[in-house]
Give the backbone structure.
Amino acid sequence: MVPILPYVINALLYAAVGFMLVRGMGRQPAPTTGAQRGRPQPTHYLVLIPLVLHTSLLARAMFVHGEMYMGVGTALSTIVWLSVLIYWLGNFFYRLEGVHALVIPVAAVGVLMPAILPATKPLANAGMPFFRVHLVISMLAYSFFTIASLHVLLMAVLEKRLHAGTLPPLLRGLPPLLAMERLLFRIIAAGFVLLTLTLASGMLFSEELFGKPLQLTHKVVFGVAAWLIFGTLLLGRARWGWRGRIAQRWTLAGFLVLLLAYVGSKFVLEVILHR
Protein backbone atom coordinates (compact mmCIF):
# COMPACT_ATOMS: atom_id res chain seq x y z
CA MET A 1 0.00 0.00 0.00
CA VAL A 2 1.53 3.31 -1.10
CA PRO A 3 1.20 6.07 1.57
CA ILE A 4 -0.87 8.77 -0.08
CA LEU A 5 -0.29 11.62 2.40
CA PRO A 6 3.05 12.84 0.88
CA TYR A 7 1.42 12.89 -2.55
CA VAL A 8 -1.55 14.88 -1.26
CA ILE A 9 0.82 17.40 0.37
CA ASN A 10 2.69 17.70 -2.94
CA ALA A 11 -0.56 18.25 -4.81
CA LEU A 12 -1.62 20.97 -2.35
CA LEU A 13 1.77 22.66 -2.74
CA TYR A 14 1.36 22.68 -6.50
CA ALA A 15 -2.13 24.13 -6.12
CA ALA A 16 -0.94 26.86 -3.72
CA VAL A 17 2.00 27.86 -5.92
CA GLY A 18 -0.21 27.80 -9.02
CA PHE A 19 -2.69 30.11 -7.31
CA MET A 20 0.09 32.55 -6.42
CA LEU A 21 1.50 32.48 -9.95
CA VAL A 22 -1.89 33.04 -11.56
CA ARG A 23 -2.69 35.84 -9.11
CA GLY A 24 0.63 37.53 -9.85
CA MET A 25 0.15 37.13 -13.59
CA GLY A 26 -3.09 39.10 -13.50
CA ARG A 27 -1.15 42.09 -12.17
CA GLN A 28 1.52 42.09 -14.90
CA PRO A 29 1.34 44.68 -17.69
CA ALA A 30 0.63 43.47 -21.19
CA PRO A 31 3.85 42.73 -23.12
CA THR A 32 4.74 44.96 -26.03
CA THR A 33 7.12 42.47 -27.69
CA GLY A 34 6.99 38.83 -28.71
CA ALA A 35 7.48 35.67 -26.75
CA GLN A 36 11.09 36.44 -25.76
CA ARG A 37 11.45 37.49 -22.15
CA GLY A 38 13.89 38.87 -19.65
CA ARG A 39 14.15 37.98 -15.98
CA PRO A 40 11.34 35.78 -14.59
CA GLN A 41 9.13 37.02 -11.79
CA PRO A 42 10.24 36.14 -8.22
CA THR A 43 7.19 33.89 -7.84
CA HIS A 44 8.55 31.74 -10.66
CA TYR A 45 11.08 30.24 -8.24
CA LEU A 46 8.28 29.02 -5.96
CA VAL A 47 7.63 26.23 -8.45
CA LEU A 48 10.86 24.62 -7.23
CA ILE A 49 9.25 23.79 -3.87
CA PRO A 50 6.64 21.28 -5.14
CA LEU A 51 8.91 20.26 -8.02
CA VAL A 52 11.69 19.10 -5.69
CA LEU A 53 9.22 17.14 -3.56
CA HIS A 54 7.73 15.67 -6.74
CA THR A 55 11.23 14.56 -7.78
CA SER A 56 11.75 12.77 -4.47
CA LEU A 57 8.38 11.01 -4.55
CA LEU A 58 8.84 9.98 -8.17
CA ALA A 59 12.28 8.53 -7.46
CA ARG A 60 10.86 6.54 -4.52
CA ALA A 61 8.04 5.20 -6.69
CA MET A 62 10.29 4.27 -9.63
CA PHE A 63 13.27 2.70 -7.87
CA VAL A 64 12.43 0.06 -5.27
CA HIS A 65 14.93 -2.51 -3.94
CA GLY A 66 17.29 -1.97 -6.85
CA GLU A 67 14.59 -2.47 -9.50
CA MET A 68 12.79 0.04 -11.71
CA TYR A 69 8.98 0.33 -11.76
CA MET A 70 7.11 2.20 -14.48
CA GLY A 71 3.38 1.61 -14.29
CA VAL A 72 0.72 3.81 -15.83
CA GLY A 73 0.57 6.00 -12.72
CA THR A 74 4.34 6.45 -12.60
CA ALA A 75 4.46 7.14 -16.34
CA LEU A 76 1.81 9.87 -16.08
CA SER A 77 3.58 11.42 -13.09
CA THR A 78 6.91 11.36 -14.95
CA ILE A 79 5.42 13.08 -17.99
CA VAL A 80 3.88 15.75 -15.78
CA TRP A 81 7.12 16.18 -13.80
CA LEU A 82 9.12 16.66 -17.00
CA SER A 83 6.49 19.08 -18.33
CA VAL A 84 6.80 21.25 -15.22
CA LEU A 85 10.61 21.08 -15.41
CA ILE A 86 10.66 22.03 -19.11
CA TYR A 87 8.20 24.86 -18.45
CA TRP A 88 10.25 26.12 -15.50
CA LEU A 89 13.50 26.14 -17.48
CA GLY A 90 11.86 27.52 -20.62
CA ASN A 91 10.41 30.44 -18.70
CA PHE A 92 13.93 31.87 -18.42
CA PHE A 93 13.97 32.33 -22.20
CA TYR A 94 10.32 32.73 -23.24
CA ARG A 95 7.19 34.27 -21.84
CA LEU A 96 5.44 31.12 -20.58
CA GLU A 97 3.57 32.59 -17.63
CA GLY A 98 0.19 31.73 -19.07
CA VAL A 99 1.12 28.09 -19.58
CA HIS A 100 1.47 27.57 -15.82
CA ALA A 101 -2.23 28.33 -15.50
CA LEU A 102 -2.69 24.88 -17.06
CA VAL A 103 0.60 23.06 -16.33
CA ILE A 104 0.54 23.53 -12.55
CA PRO A 105 -3.07 22.29 -12.04
CA VAL A 106 -2.27 19.28 -14.23
CA ALA A 107 0.81 18.66 -12.06
CA ALA A 108 -1.34 18.82 -8.92
CA VAL A 109 -3.36 15.91 -10.28
CA GLY A 110 -0.50 14.05 -11.98
CA VAL A 111 1.61 13.87 -8.84
CA LEU A 112 -1.10 11.73 -7.22
CA MET A 113 -1.04 9.06 -9.94
CA PRO A 114 1.69 6.75 -8.48
CA ALA A 115 -0.35 6.49 -5.28
CA ILE A 116 -3.64 5.94 -7.09
CA LEU A 117 -2.27 3.59 -9.77
CA PRO A 118 0.90 2.06 -8.28
CA ALA A 119 3.13 -0.18 -10.38
CA THR A 120 3.04 -3.83 -9.32
CA LYS A 121 5.77 -5.34 -11.51
CA PRO A 122 9.36 -4.21 -12.13
CA LEU A 123 10.26 -2.99 -15.60
CA ALA A 124 12.00 -5.60 -17.75
CA ASN A 125 15.43 -4.74 -19.20
CA ALA A 126 15.59 -1.63 -17.01
CA GLY A 127 19.23 -2.34 -16.22
CA MET A 128 20.27 -1.79 -19.82
CA PRO A 129 21.71 1.72 -20.36
CA PHE A 130 20.35 1.82 -23.92
CA PHE A 131 16.87 0.99 -22.67
CA ARG A 132 17.03 3.81 -20.11
CA VAL A 133 18.11 6.27 -22.81
CA HIS A 134 15.17 5.11 -24.95
CA LEU A 135 12.80 5.57 -22.00
CA VAL A 136 14.08 9.07 -21.17
CA ILE A 137 13.76 10.20 -24.80
CA SER A 138 10.19 8.86 -25.03
CA MET A 139 9.17 10.57 -21.78
CA LEU A 140 10.68 13.84 -23.01
CA ALA A 141 8.73 13.54 -26.26
CA TYR A 142 5.49 13.05 -24.33
CA SER A 143 6.31 16.02 -22.12
CA PHE A 144 6.97 18.39 -25.03
CA PHE A 145 3.70 17.39 -26.67
CA THR A 146 1.89 17.76 -23.34
CA ILE A 147 3.14 21.36 -23.10
CA ALA A 148 2.21 21.91 -26.76
CA SER A 149 -1.35 20.70 -26.11
CA LEU A 150 -1.74 22.94 -23.06
CA HIS A 151 -0.25 25.79 -25.07
CA VAL A 152 -2.89 25.19 -27.77
CA LEU A 153 -5.72 25.27 -25.23
CA LEU A 154 -4.41 28.57 -23.87
CA MET A 155 -4.18 30.00 -27.38
CA ALA A 156 -7.75 28.94 -28.11
CA VAL A 157 -9.00 30.72 -24.98
CA LEU A 158 -6.98 33.84 -25.82
CA GLU A 159 -8.24 33.89 -29.41
CA LYS A 160 -11.85 33.51 -28.28
CA ARG A 161 -11.50 36.35 -25.77
CA LEU A 162 -9.85 38.60 -28.36
CA HIS A 163 -12.71 38.03 -30.79
CA ALA A 164 -15.21 38.76 -28.02
CA GLY A 165 -13.40 42.02 -27.26
CA THR A 166 -12.97 41.22 -23.58
CA LEU A 167 -9.59 40.24 -22.17
CA PRO A 168 -9.50 39.32 -18.45
CA PRO A 169 -6.48 40.41 -16.37
CA LEU A 170 -5.14 36.85 -16.32
CA LEU A 171 -4.65 36.88 -20.09
CA ARG A 172 -3.28 40.41 -20.43
CA GLY A 173 0.24 39.35 -19.52
CA LEU A 174 0.43 36.87 -22.40
CA PRO A 175 2.52 37.54 -25.52
CA PRO A 176 0.73 38.34 -28.81
CA LEU A 177 -1.09 35.41 -30.39
CA LEU A 178 1.32 35.20 -33.33
CA ALA A 179 4.31 35.05 -30.97
CA MET A 180 2.63 32.25 -29.02
CA GLU A 181 2.01 30.39 -32.27
CA ARG A 182 5.66 30.62 -33.29
CA LEU A 183 6.66 29.26 -29.90
CA LEU A 184 4.10 26.45 -30.26
CA PHE A 185 5.73 25.20 -33.45
CA ARG A 186 9.17 25.30 -31.85
CA ILE A 187 7.83 23.09 -29.05
CA ILE A 188 6.20 20.73 -31.56
CA ALA A 189 9.39 20.56 -33.63
CA ALA A 190 11.44 19.61 -30.54
CA GLY A 191 8.87 16.97 -29.58
CA PHE A 192 8.83 15.62 -33.15
CA VAL A 193 12.60 15.12 -33.14
CA LEU A 194 12.38 13.25 -29.83
CA LEU A 195 9.45 11.16 -31.04
CA THR A 196 11.39 10.28 -34.19
CA LEU A 197 14.33 9.10 -32.08
CA THR A 198 11.96 7.10 -29.87
CA LEU A 199 10.30 5.29 -32.77
CA ALA A 200 13.56 4.76 -34.64
CA SER A 201 15.35 3.26 -31.64
CA GLY A 202 12.35 1.10 -30.78
CA MET A 203 12.03 -0.26 -34.32
CA LEU A 204 15.73 -0.71 -35.12
CA PHE A 205 16.74 -2.17 -31.78
CA SER A 206 13.52 -3.87 -30.66
CA GLU A 207 15.18 -7.18 -29.85
CA GLU A 208 17.95 -5.53 -27.81
CA LEU A 209 15.49 -3.23 -25.98
CA PHE A 210 12.53 -5.53 -25.39
CA GLY A 211 13.98 -8.99 -25.93
CA LYS A 212 11.87 -9.77 -29.01
CA PRO A 213 11.66 -8.72 -32.68
CA LEU A 214 9.49 -5.78 -33.70
CA GLN A 215 5.79 -6.60 -33.69
CA LEU A 216 2.97 -4.57 -35.21
CA THR A 217 1.17 -3.89 -31.93
CA HIS A 218 -1.39 -1.16 -31.34
CA LYS A 219 1.33 0.74 -29.47
CA VAL A 220 3.51 0.83 -32.59
CA VAL A 221 0.55 1.68 -34.84
CA PHE A 222 -0.60 4.60 -32.66
CA GLY A 223 2.99 5.81 -32.24
CA VAL A 224 3.56 5.91 -36.00
CA ALA A 225 0.14 7.54 -36.50
CA ALA A 226 1.05 10.30 -34.04
CA TRP A 227 4.40 10.78 -35.80
CA LEU A 228 2.60 11.14 -39.15
CA ILE A 229 0.14 13.66 -37.70
CA PHE A 230 2.84 15.88 -36.21
CA GLY A 231 5.03 15.48 -39.30
CA THR A 232 2.13 16.54 -41.54
CA LEU A 233 1.45 19.50 -39.27
CA LEU A 234 5.06 20.71 -39.47
CA LEU A 235 5.07 20.19 -43.25
CA GLY A 236 1.79 22.08 -43.59
CA ARG A 237 3.21 24.92 -41.54
CA ALA A 238 6.37 25.11 -43.68
CA ARG A 239 4.77 24.74 -47.12
CA TRP A 240 1.23 26.08 -46.78
CA GLY A 241 1.45 28.30 -43.71
CA TRP A 242 -0.95 26.30 -41.55
CA ARG A 243 -1.85 28.18 -38.43
CA GLY A 244 -4.74 29.07 -36.15
CA ARG A 245 -7.44 26.48 -35.63
CA ILE A 246 -5.96 24.06 -38.15
CA ALA A 247 -2.73 23.90 -36.16
CA GLN A 248 -4.67 23.63 -32.89
CA ARG A 249 -6.79 20.71 -34.10
CA TRP A 250 -3.84 18.78 -35.52
CA THR A 251 -1.85 19.31 -32.33
CA LEU A 252 -4.62 18.01 -30.09
CA ALA A 253 -5.34 15.10 -32.43
CA GLY A 254 -1.69 14.07 -32.45
CA PHE A 255 -1.45 14.33 -28.68
CA LEU A 256 -4.54 12.15 -28.14
CA VAL A 257 -3.20 9.50 -30.51
CA LEU A 258 0.16 9.61 -28.72
CA LEU A 259 -1.56 9.09 -25.37
CA LEU A 260 -3.27 6.02 -26.78
CA ALA A 261 0.08 4.70 -27.99
CA TYR A 262 1.74 4.41 -24.58
CA VAL A 263 -0.34 5.54 -21.62
CA GLY A 264 -3.55 4.10 -23.06
CA SER A 265 -2.01 0.70 -23.71
CA LYS A 266 -0.46 0.55 -20.23
CA PHE A 267 -3.79 1.56 -18.66
CA VAL A 268 -5.65 -1.22 -20.45
CA LEU A 269 -3.02 -3.85 -19.60
CA GLU A 270 -2.43 -2.88 -15.97
CA VAL A 271 -5.75 -1.47 -14.75
CA ILE A 272 -8.33 -3.28 -16.84
CA LEU A 273 -6.62 -6.59 -17.70
CA HIS A 274 -4.34 -6.65 -14.59
CA ARG A 275 -1.30 -7.84 -16.56
